[in-house]
Write a structure and sequence with these properties.
Layout (H helix, E strand, L loop, with lengths): L1 H18 L19 E10 L2 E6 L2 E6 L3 E6 L3 E7 L4 E3 L2 E3 L3 E6 L4 E4 L2 E3 L2 E6 L5 E8 H6 L2 H4 L6 H21 L7 E2 L15 H9 L3 E5 L2 E2 L4 E2 L35 E7 H10 L7 E9 L5 E8 L2 E6 H8 L9 E6 L2 E7 L7 E2 H9 L4 H8 L4 E4 H7 L3
Helix pairs in contact: 1-4, 1-10, 4-5, 4-8, 4-9
């Protein structure tokens, strides 16, 4: 019973966090709520000078943060929204409020910058007089807008289901982490790429439905279910990158992604570009003379690099070096580097941070007949797949 109660606390905290910004979002929610009532807050636009808003159908506008009703309409709306010194301008109509929430019925369609979204939309004026747009959405609908961007909707069903469970778990984990913050997730690679209803596809939607409510736990805590495109032959130990030190994320050999299109890569980058990007990230570099690998970890990835320039040597952790140069240029920290003239030639393996599930490995595992559960057990050894609804119900007994 103690193990079940511990997980309930984690799930309940996340649930409260998702509801905190609007008391009426889940007025009927209780410990018997199922996965469809679990909501996430996704920042779909940040730091914008204006956004376009289009609504087809019935909608109601509320003032934030107390949700006082400002208006209710059914006519077609197409306007630009801009921040002002005293609030928000929706078309030609000024609102002297911190922000607005737009709630629609199930038949209406809301578009932000021509992208279609389910759920409620908050448009908030920030202290910098910019706009922050947050989509409040049930976790299952959220996942339907995620999977198409994380894996191909044409992939085998078992790989899609494994991705759905990993993505759902990651989203729940982030809601726990984000208590007290304005939102739980962003819509980019720093959380999970999310495109709203516009990104939904039949096969990915089916994978979400067939795994509804399923998440991964380890020792009764929600697993940080990281994933990446291609591990290059060995997944990474999460503790080498973040403050996460648990057996399911310690890294392991992977023999399944060798045919991935991202298994090997090269990048030829001018030294002047590397110098600028490192200086932009607060490193002191001038006239690079050499780049040397200091050491590697058990997975084969680089621990750190020495950048030797005319003003000295900077020892830079490989992950920070990669992010500074650009994660789409240096696709992983598993690389060799040689200076040729005034450029650095990188030869590497894999794409991404390498922690957790290797997506292309999952693809080839599914092609070989492995099930969704077998894929997840392979990449997250020791983790358990559980149903959110079952655990929440059981904890009340």
């Amino acid at each position: 019973m103690m193990r079940k109660l511990t997980l309930l606390i984690y799930l309940s905290i996340a649930f409260i966090s998702a509801c905190a910004s609007a008391l009426d979002d889940f007025a009927s929610a209780s410990s018997t709520a199922n996965a469809t009532s679990y909501a996430v807050r996704v920042a779909v636009i940040r730091n914008a000078s204006e956004v376009s808003l289009k609504i087809k159908g019935h909608y109601t506008i509320y003032a934030l943060p107390l949700l006082e009703q400002l208006g209710e309409r059914t006519e077609f709306l197409k306007v630009d929204v801009k921040p002002t010194n005293s609030g928000i301008l929706i078309g030609l109509e000024p609102f002297n409020v911190y922000g607005v929430r737009i709630k629609t019925n199930g038949e209406a369609n809301t578009y932000i910058n021509d992208r279609r979204f389910r759920g409620d939309i908050d448009i908030i004026r920030t202290e910098e007089t910019k706009l922050l747009v947050i989509n409040h959405i049930g976790i299952e609908d959220y996942l339907s807008g995620v999977l198409y961007h994380e894996v191909s909707h044409l992939w085998p069903t078992e790989a899609l289901k494994a991705q759905a469970i990993a993505s759902r778990t990651f989203a729940v984990y982030k809601t726990i982490e984000s208590i007290g913050k304005d939102y739980d997730l962003t819509n980019d690679v720093y959380s999970q790429v999310y495109g709203g209803r516009t990104s939904e596809r039949r096969r990915t939607n089916r994978a979400v439905k067939e795994t509804a409510g399923k998440i991964l736990i380890y020792r009764n805590k929600v697993l940080p279910a990281y994933f990446h495109a291609t591990c290059g032959g060995h997944t990474e130990d999460a503790s080498l990158l973040w403050d996460v030190d648990i057996p399911p994320l310690k890294g392991k050999p992977c023999n399944y992604c060798g045919q991935s299109p991202h298994f090997k890569w090269t990048a030829n980058i001018p030294l002047a570009d590397i110098e600028k990007r490192l200086n932009d990230n607060s490193y002191k570099i001038k006239d690079i003379q050499d780049i040397k690998i200091s050491s590697r970890d058990i997975s084969g990835r680089v621990d750190s690099v020495n950048v030797i320039s005319s003003i000295g040597t900077e020892n830079i952790p490989a992950n920070k070096f990669r992010l500074a140069i650009g994660p789409n240029l240096l696709r992983s920290a598993n690389f060799e580097v040689v200076i040729r003239g005034r450029a650095a030639l990188f030869n590497g393996r894999g794409w991404g941070h390498g922690v957790g599930m290797c997506q292309w490995g999952a693809y080839y595992m599914s092609r070989k007949g492995f099930s969704c559960d077998e894929i997840l057990r392979f990449y997250y050894p020791g983790a358990t797949i559980v149903d959110m609804k079952y655990l929440m119900l059981e904890s009340n007994e």
